[in-house]
């Protein structure tokens, strides 16, 4: 049950009446009128628990976009429903309008539309629907809640999509080019064509030349249908905010660009998110469904405040990647992670796979390292230089073992990872 | 109309859940009430205030009242002017706070024929009760003073703490405890056929100070002159009780009922606004830490430890690494020579800059950092 502003207004009018016609009789009469009004309203209001509510609408929206969710309110009772409805969502769902007035005649149904503009990635679950059903006088209302579950998934925004066209152009160049004249690992036979001056004489196919009137060379091209496994570290280091977004979100963005690119290049893309256990898996689907499945797998991921079990991650990668793969590891370049976790596990990984380690560098550290304004700034510069030196050492240790290290600030990470992938592909090292 | 096919979604309130949610606050409220009742029941009723003959507190006067009773003086309390009707000759009236008396109470006091003892009165009260006596200053001595007069009560008591206010008196009055300007802290005058004693303070009468110097003797002598002592601790009173009218009787009757209805309106407004439309929805917030936090924390540690040498070495090491890639050699002599050649600086100066001793203070460290930057920039330009 709930009271209304109209009841307060009526009581105020009652106070004036009491002033004009003083006496306990008037006072009691006004009270009685108000009480009868309230009781009548509560009794005559349409019952809330008898309503039937159903939801429909969008289940996913890219972050930054808007989704609409509809709520159908059916009134099976005999009294008309005049109500204020609150469809409650968490604040980051950006639901508008938060409350709506509705009138549903007996036996009919009405549709309420709520627009969601999520401000954060992840699943947004609807809370209760609360209905305040007013009586005919509008002095009091019945109130009750319904639980009508619905989830809208806010997908990662994929802002690095703008880098995709240029990288696809490079990929096409790569594919059409027959520069890989020497047969090597990761290349496959493409075709025979006539020799032109400048071709490597070692690629002349003598058997074909003997059959034809002209000198014929064999051409090779980067092998297709390779495996790419993207591994997201969702542990402690991924929670660190660099610029506006946590490292995890930046890594997701880069992973999406890489996934889109690799899928176009004809490779099979898989995703694994891991901290102390597997948080998400995706991939193996047909090429057309790859990006949606990646995005949906990433959407609910949140950084966990635990130290990543890197050995467990390596084991999970080995279990997942049965064929020779390109493993792209999005993690931190902390000395602890690299020396204690990554280095011991690397040999097992490197014997079978090619590894890229991608990390989000913090521009703030560079800013600190360049500041000379006062003593505190110089101490900060020393601390920043130390951190950079540690990062460099860790990166050098990885590079020495044959890992490609990409350590870039957030806005350059996604294109840099894509370029590293293209370079490996061009070199036939996949 | 077809029956709705949706499953029911309404949430029913479980009475047990309601009870579970409400019992905590109810228990706290009950506990508070119980504690309040116990405290009210146990708190001593005697602790009532300053110069109260029944108060054993520091500022009370229970000790003095007890002493007087042991001397055979009847001590009674008066609260209103009506209580003074039967007080006449042969009694002493002590007025602890003359300034709190209303006009009616002052008139009632003046009408009695009993002797008066006034503690620190102002001119307004003196005009009625002791004409001719005026306030001289309010900055009198707080230390014991000699009596220096012929009043037997004061002479017998000797030095006493008389209080902060001093008075000017007419010629025929007896003045005691004079200050250097000739004003007195104790004045005894005859007015209206009875004796009025004006005393500049209440220090001599409190439990805390009664035992000091001649305080007790002075108080006993002043108050024990008659077998009956009336302690007039006046409560505020205006018009006589039978003529009093409450605020509601003075207002037109309509106002009263309108006000009652106004309270009801306010209560309804509170209930209207207090009812939420559904529960509060909690936002599951993600973890967010600034990634540079660790670096900044380490900088604060360096600073607190004043690790200048360490900080300078780290900065030099970083500069040497960058210079090594620029000039193409990493060993000390080679690099110093190459940097000196490119920048035109003296090799010794370059060596001191890149491999020198740690800076002695913070400003030297800042200088060193800037010098390293400048040197690197010169090498890059060259």
TrEMBL record, chain A:
Name of a matching Pfam family: DUF58
Keyword set includes Cell wall biogenesis/degradation: no
UniProt keyword list: Cytoplasm
Cellular compartments annotated: Cytoplasm
GO cellular component, one term: cytoplasm
UniProt cross-references to InterPro entries, sorted A to Z: ASH, DUF58
Residue ranges occupied by any DUF58 domain in the UniProt entry: 192-369
UniProt superkingdom: Bacteria
Domain Abnormal spindle-like microcephaly-associated protein ASH as annotated: residue spans: 61-124
Protein name: Uncharacterized conserved protein, DUF58 family, contains vWF domain
Organism expressing this protein natively: Pseudonocardia thermophila
Lineage: Bacteria, Bacillati, Actinomycetota, Actinomycetes, Pseudonocardiales
UniProtKB/TrEMBL annotation, chain B:
Keywords: Membrane, Transmembrane, Transmembrane helix
Pfam family name, one: DUF4350
Record field: transmembrane: 21-42, 254-272
Organism name: Pseudonocardia thermophila
Protein name: DUF4350 domain-containing protein
InterPro entries listed in its UniProt record: DUF4350 (IPR025646)
Domain DUF4350: start-end pairs: 53-223
């Amino acid at each position: 049950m709930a009271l209304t502003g109209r009841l307060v207004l009526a009581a105020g009018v009652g106070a004036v009446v009491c002033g004009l016609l003083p006496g306990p009789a008037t006072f009691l009469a006004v009270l009685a009128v108000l009480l009868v009004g309230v009781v009548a309203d509560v009794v005559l209001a349409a019952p809330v628990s008898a309503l039937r509510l159903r939801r429909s609408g969008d289940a996913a929206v890219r972050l930054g976009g808007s989704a609409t969710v509809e709520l159908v309110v059916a009134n099976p009772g005999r009294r008309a429903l005049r109500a204020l409805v609150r469809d409650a969502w968490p604040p980051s769902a950006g639901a508008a309008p938060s409350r709506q007035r509705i009138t549903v005649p007996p036996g009919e149904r009405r549709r309420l539309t709520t627009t969601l503009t999520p401000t954060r990635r992840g699943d947004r679950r609807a809370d209760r629907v609360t209905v305040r059903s007013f009586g005919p006088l509008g002095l009091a209302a019945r109130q009750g809640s319904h639980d009508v579950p619905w989830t809208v998934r806010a997908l990662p925004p994929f802002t690095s999509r703008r880098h995709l066209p240029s990288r696809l152009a490079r990929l096409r160049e790569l594919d059409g080019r027959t520069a890989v004249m020497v047969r090597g690992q990761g290349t496959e036979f493409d075709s025979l064509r006539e020799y032109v001056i400048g071709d490597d004489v070692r690629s002349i196919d003598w058997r074909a030349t003997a059959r034809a009137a002209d000198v014929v060379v064999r051409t090779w091209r980067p092998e297709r249908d390779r495996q790419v496994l993207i591994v997201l570290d969702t542990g402690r280091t991924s929670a660190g905010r660099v610029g506006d977004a946590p490292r995890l979100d930046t890594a997701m963005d880069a992973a999406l660009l890489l996934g889109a690119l690799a899928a176009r290049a004809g490779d099979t893309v898989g995703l694994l998110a891991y901290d102390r256990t597997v948080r998400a898996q995706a991939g193996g689907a047909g090429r057309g469904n790859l990006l949606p499945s990646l995005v949906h797998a990433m959407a609910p991921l949140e950084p966990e405040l635990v130290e990543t079990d890197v050995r467990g991650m390596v084991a999970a990668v080995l279990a997942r990647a049965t064929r020779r793969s390109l493993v792209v590891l999005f993690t931190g370049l902390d000395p602890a992670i690299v020396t204690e976790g990554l280095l011991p596990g690397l040999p097992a990984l490197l014997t079978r796979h090619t590894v890229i380690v991608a990390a989000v560098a913090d521009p703030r550290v560079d800013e600190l390292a360049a500041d000379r304004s006062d003593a505190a700034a110089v101490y900060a510069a020393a601390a920043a230089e130390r951190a950079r030196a540690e990062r460099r050492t860790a990166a050098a240790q990885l590079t020495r073992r044959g890992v490609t290290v990409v350590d870039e600030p957030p806005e350059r990470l996604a294109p840099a990872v894509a370029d590293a992938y293209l370079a490996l592909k061009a070199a036939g090292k996949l | 109309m077809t029956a709705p096919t949706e499953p029911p979604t309404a949430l029913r309130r479980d009475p047990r859940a309601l009870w579970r949610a409400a019992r905590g606050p109810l228990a706290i409220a009950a506990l508070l009430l119980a504690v309040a009742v116990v405290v009210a029941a146990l708190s001593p009723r005697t602790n009532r205030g300053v110069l109260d003959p029944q108060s054993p507190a520091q500022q009370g006067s229970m000790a003095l009242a007890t002493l007087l009773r042991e001397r055979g003086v009847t001590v009674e309390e008066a609260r209103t002017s009506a209580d003074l009707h039967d007080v006449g000759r042969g009694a002493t009236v002590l007025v602890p706070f003359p300034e709190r008396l209303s006009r009616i109470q002052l008139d009632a006091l003046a009408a009695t024929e009993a002797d008066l003892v006034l503690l620190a009165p102002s001119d307004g009260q003196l005009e009625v009760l002791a004409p001719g006596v005026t306030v001289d200053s309010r900055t009198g001595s707080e230390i014991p003073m000699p009596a220096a007069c012929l009043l037997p009560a004061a002479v017998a008591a000797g030095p006493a703490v008389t209080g902060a206010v001093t008075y000017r008196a007419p010629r025929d009055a007896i003045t005691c405890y004079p200050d250097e300007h000739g004003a007195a802290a104790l004045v005894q005058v005859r007015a209206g056929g009875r004796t009025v004693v004006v005393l500049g303070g209440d220090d001599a009468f409190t439990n805390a100070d009664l035992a000091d110097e001649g305080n007790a003797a002075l108080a006993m002598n002043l108050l024990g002159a008659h077998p009956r002592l009336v302690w007039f601790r006046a409560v505020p009173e205006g018009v006589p009780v039978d003529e009093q009218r409450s605020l509601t009787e003075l207002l037109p009757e309509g106002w009263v009922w309108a006000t009652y209805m106004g309270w009801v309106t306010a209560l309804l407004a509170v209930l209207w606004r207090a009812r939420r439309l559904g529960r509060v929805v909690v936002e599951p917030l993600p973890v967010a830490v600034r990634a540079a936090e660790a670096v900044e924390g380490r900088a604060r540690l360096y600073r607190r430890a004043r690790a200048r040498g360490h900080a300078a070495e780290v900065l030099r090491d970083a500069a040497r690494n960058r210079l090594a890639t620029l000039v193409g050699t990493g060993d000390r002599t080679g690099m110093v020579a190459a940097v000196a050649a490119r920048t035109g600086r003296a090799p010794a100066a370059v060596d001191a800059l890149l491999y020198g001793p740690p800076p002695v203070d913070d400003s030297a460290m800042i200088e060193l950092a800037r010098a390293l930057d400048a040197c690197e920039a010169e090498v890059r330009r060259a």
